[in-house]
Design goal:
Chain lengths: 450, 503
């Protein structure tokens, strides 16, 4: 018997009497007897919190990859950044954690203003004027971006670089089963999108990632030119940490920016909740998915914030809506505003620079190992891929038994069986990784491939 | 910018005053910072030596420049300007804003769960996979289904996933079909999801009892109907008593039944969607299973399905293998991935903790007390705000302010704003659309009789004010951090960022 119900037996009786009933059963009498559960749910009986804690303790001990067991060099859109105590404390405030969607702005200025600040930060990092209040994650954000482009152009062909994260591409393909979009994938050659390999005629969107999922900093000029030539929207996936120092999506001429905001104060969380960053040009404002917060005034002329442009949303547009988004990831957006407030203008630049420094140091050391080869010869930022002699998953497994999560197998990142060899490792470095940890990585890799 | 806002002046906190709170940017002082980074010993290679010049932004992007002390003060004050379940009753109909047990947050705060990278090989994350499989199994029992995907990040994502499953099933049988039926009282996400699922919406009217009109439904059925989406209890809080007949009729034309789980809290342990004939069920874990909603998200929208749809579920899917270990397996005819990784895992962990604490017996008590509270409130308020459909409701009751509007010109929105002055969050207003001046109250099972009494008395005072001092309601609330906001201006003159404000 464990629950969080306040009524005493006497109160339950009093309330039933008030309703002219003598049992709880009567409340459910109008449900057809044929479908009622006679025996209740076939689940174990309730347990106290300490009992349940013990069960979870057993489960978590079966995870051998928590931060204290394993030094993380895995990336692929999920990065092991520092989250300072001040961010955890503020982001964990019950007022933010247990609020609902800010439907009543008079009692939701806290969340609304935090989202406004988040939107300002996203707009500046993307170089685009119209941010939204967040989406679920980057993969589903990419789906929304593609739908926006189809709505804007009236065409349904999506030309997408194979440099876009495999999971994002897979998610776009899943949802295209409903919308009927045609997805044309553009192959990579030496780590760079070979845009001339496909016919982009009639494209609604040209989609690229910057850096691409293999870490390569690709020139966005050809993608932008292709978009312009075909009057398609240019959709850019970004790494928001790299965005502190690289050219912005807006500077490259993108119409839409999508990014994975997990690095802004959200933990690895086994993949969720994360944070879908989204921003676009003013021309696309009526097709913006999800919520957006705007500044206004109250009846006493005080600055206030409110969710706005509501006429786009599903609860009003219903079957004519271009997005079905209702819930988003507000708590992660608020946390991102706190984390970026903490890091500030120069702190985020420093984090980005340190990530790149760690990755470049690791790259130089790894390439000294006999048998290890670079996957391509391109510039990279904080992540890069390399070939190992033998099986990448086995190499990673060997490193893991020695306390290092050595990266991700690129083959394992693909849900589809590609038939390619499993010999490429994607590795990322964050500002958390020390030189000693990187040197240890190199030693373990040397042994693993020997 | 004119003057830099002082970070330590607390006059925007309702405790001390009613000033506006400056933004982070207004508090910023060039050169001020809060961040500290660890010593790594990694060579400090200049950026220019790592990144080609053409890729570097020539400009420094301004973010914020504040001290840690001011950062804390700012976000603490923002938190003081925000209503939450932790603070008080939040009777938003269809949102199930019940108390969020702190224990579930503590479970999710375990580094053994939240510091694990999602790309870690399965042999190192057996605990996580077991947790996910255990949740899938329990959700399947609760809904009367065969299996579930945990990937969808919220209810709407679950809806679209469910519709893609419907499409995959029909396509495998040779014809994806064309139409999906939806009652006129449905949540807006339903028709929006249907369109994105590549189907046309056919709207089914409600009858005078607030239920699906069975004859109107039958008239719309045919071989081109892919299925029907239903919420049961429906969006006015009433149980669809003809559900067995509805299920038979839809199944007879080869259609599937989709259960929108927004109102699942009402029937936990009483009746299961699977037993009613549903084939696809999405759940909102942030409603029924008390995971905190975070000011609008994160949610989690697992989708459970009957046996004939299991092979289409999204993947890779955490799976219990014959040898007792766990692995990621893609179902044979999977529609593919619907999330960047495995879904909102920390939300899933909280939900499992909640379900395990309650057990089968506790979940049944949850629905009993939720329905008891809603009915008590409905009857208690009958003289002040009449129910749109005056009979036993489920977990929420839809009341109407139409009499107040007719007599005193006081609208549902005014009642809602008046409640804010009385110390309660407002109910859901103007939904469902089929009820004029709708006020939908969902007290949930975690509010006490004394709280319900106080809410009822607050409503009575508001109804009295509607007669004696209606103007005071039209300008309510006045005791909150801001008064009524100018929503029209926000839409007309969009200012979504500080930079737009400066222009």
């Amino acid at each position: 018997m464990a629950d969080y119900l306040p009524h005493t037996p006497a109160e339950v009786e009093e309330m039933l009497n008030f309703l002219g009933m003598d049992s709880m059963e009567q409340l459910f009498d109008h449900i057809p007897a044929a479908v009622r559960l006679s025996q209740g749910l076939d689940l174990p009986a309730g347990l106290s919190e300490p009992d349940v804690a013990a069960i979870f303790e057993g489960l978590t001990q079966k995870n051998k990859a928590k931060a204290s067991d394993m030094v993380c060099f895995a990336g692929g859109g999920a990065y092991d950044h520092e989250i300072p105590p001040v961010v955890k404390t503020l982001g964990g405030r019950g007022e933010f954690v247990t609020a609902y969607t800010p439907y009543q702005p008079e009692v939701a200025q806290g969340v609304l203003q935090a989202i406004f600040e988040y939107q300002t930060l996203v707009s500046r990092l993307s170089g685009l004027p119209i941010p939204n209040a967040s989406l679920y994650d980057a993969a589903t954000g990419m789906v929304e971006a593609v739908n926006m482009a189809v709505g804007a152009t009236g065409r349904n062909k999506i030309v997408m670089s194979a440099g876009v994260h495999p999971h994002w591409r897979a998610t776009v393909k899943t949802f295209a089963q409903g919308t009927g979009h045609e997805i044309v994938e553009v192959p990579l050659v030496d780590g760079v999108t070979n845009w001339s390999a496909v016919d982009a005629t009639g494209a609604a969107a040209i989609v690229a990632s910057y850096p691409n999922y293999l870490g390569v900093i690709e020139d966005m000029t050809p993608a932008k030119q292709l978009a312009t030539a075909n009057e398609a929207l240019f959709v850019m996936g970004i790494d928001p940490v790299a965005a502190a120092v690289l050219k912005t999506a807006g500077q490259w001429g993108a119409d839409v920016m999508v990014g994975e905001g997990q690095p802004f104060g959200t933990g690895l969380n086994f993949g969720g909740p994360y944070l879908g960053l989204f921003a676009c040009t003013e021309a696309q404002i009526r097709r913006l998915p999800g919520r957006i917060v705007g500044e206004t005034v109250d009846s006493n002329n005080r600055r206030s914030f409110v969710t706005t442009l509501r006429a786009r949303e599903q609860d009003i547009r219903r079957e004519k809506a271009t997005s079905n988004i209702c819930s988003n990831q507000t708590l992660m957006a608020v946390t991102a505003a706190i984390q970026l407030g903490y890091l500030g203008t120069y702190g985020l630049r420093e984090v980005a620079t340190r990530c790149a420094q760690g990755a470049h140091y690791l790259h130089d050391e790894v390439m000294k190992i006999s048998g290890v080869e670079p996957l391509n010869s391109q510039p990279f930022f904080r992540e890069f891929a390399f070939k190992v002699p033998g099986n990448a998953s086995e190499v990673l497994s060997h490193m893991a038994t020695n306390g290092v999560l050595g990266g991700l197998s690129v083959k394992a990142l693909h849900d589809e069986v590609t038939g390619e060899d499993d010999n490429v490792i994607l590795v990322a470095v964050t500002e958390k990784r020390t030189k000693d940890q990187i040197d240890n990585y190199v030693e373990l890799l040397r042994k693993a491939v020997a | 910018m004119s003057k830099i806002a002082p970070g330590g002046k607390a006059s925007s906190a309702p405790l001390l005053g009613n000033d506006i709170e400056p933004t982070l940017f207004e508090m910023s002082v060039p050169g001020r910072s809060a961040y500290q980074l660890r010593t790594t010993g990694v060579p400090a290679t200049p950026l220019e030596d790592m990144v080609p010049f053409a890729h570097l932004n020539p400009e420094v992007i301004p973010l914020a420049e504040v001290s840690e002390r001011d950062l804390v003060a700012h976000f603490m004050r923002l938190s003081h300007r925000q209503f939450s379940v932790d603070l008080g009753m939040y009777p938003l109909g269809s949102c199930t804003m019940k108390y969020n047990p702190k224990f579930c947050d503590a479970v999710a705060g375990d580094p053994g769960l939240n510091t694990v990278h999602p790309g870690t090989p399965a042999e190192l994350t057996q605990g996580w996979l077991e947790l996910l499989v255990s949740l899938e199994e329990k959700l399947s029992v609760i809904t009367g289904m065969q299996a579930a995907t945990l990937q969808p990040a919220a209810g709407a994502a679950g809806e679209l996933t469910g519709l893609l499953l419907m499409r995959a099933y029909h396509t495998a049988n040779g014809d994806p079909r064309k139409r999906v039926l939806i009652p006129d009282a449905a949540h807006g996400t339903n028709p929006a999801s249907v369109t994105l699922g590549g189907y046309e919406v056919t709207t089914i009217p409600s009858n005078e009892r607030g239920l699906v009109d069975l004859e109107a439904l039958k008239a719309q059925l045919g071989p081109d109907v892919a299925g029907i989406m239903l919420t049961n209890p429906n969006t006015v809080g009433l149980f669809e008593e003809e559900i067995v007949e509805i299920a038979e009729a839809v199944h007879d034309v080869g259609g599937l039944l989709y259960y929108d789980g927004a109102n699942l809290n009402a029937i936990l342990g009483q009746v299961r969607p699977g037993d009613m004939g549903f084939d696809i069920v999405h759940m909102n874990l942030h409603k029924t299973f008390a995971t905190p909603h975070g000011g609008g998200g994160p949610g989690a929208g697992p989708v459970a399905v009957s046996k004939r749809l299991v092979e289409f579920l999204p993947g890779p899917k955490p799976t219990r293998m014959a040898d007792g270990t766990f692995a990621w397996v893609k179902p044979p005819r999977s529609i593919g991935r619907v999330h960047g990784w495995h879904g909102n895992a920390m939300v899933l962990a909280r939900a499992l903790a909640y379900i395990t604490v309650h057990g089968g017996d506790g979940l049944k008590r949850v629905s009993e007390h939720a329905v008891l509270n809603a009915n008590w409130l409905r009857v208690r308020l009958a003289k002040s705000l009449p129910a749109a459909y005056d009979r036993v409701c489920m977990h929420e009751c839809t009341l109407t302010a139409t009499p107040l509007k007719q007599k005193y010109g006081i609208k549902g929105l005014d009642v809602a704003k008046g409640l804010l002055e009385e110390g309660f969050h407002s109910p859901t207003v103007y939904f469902p659309l089929i009820v004029d001046e709708a006020l939908m109250f969902e007290p949930t099972e975690t509010e006490s009789l004394q709280t319900l009494e106080a809410l009822a008395e607050a409503v009575e005072r508001i109804v009295a004010r509607a007669e004696t001092d209606p103007e005071s309601l039209r300008i309510a609330p006045q005791t909150t951090p801001v008064s009524r906001v100018d929503e029209a201006r926000a839409a007309r003159q969009l200012v979504p960022t500080e930079d737009a404000a400066a222009r």
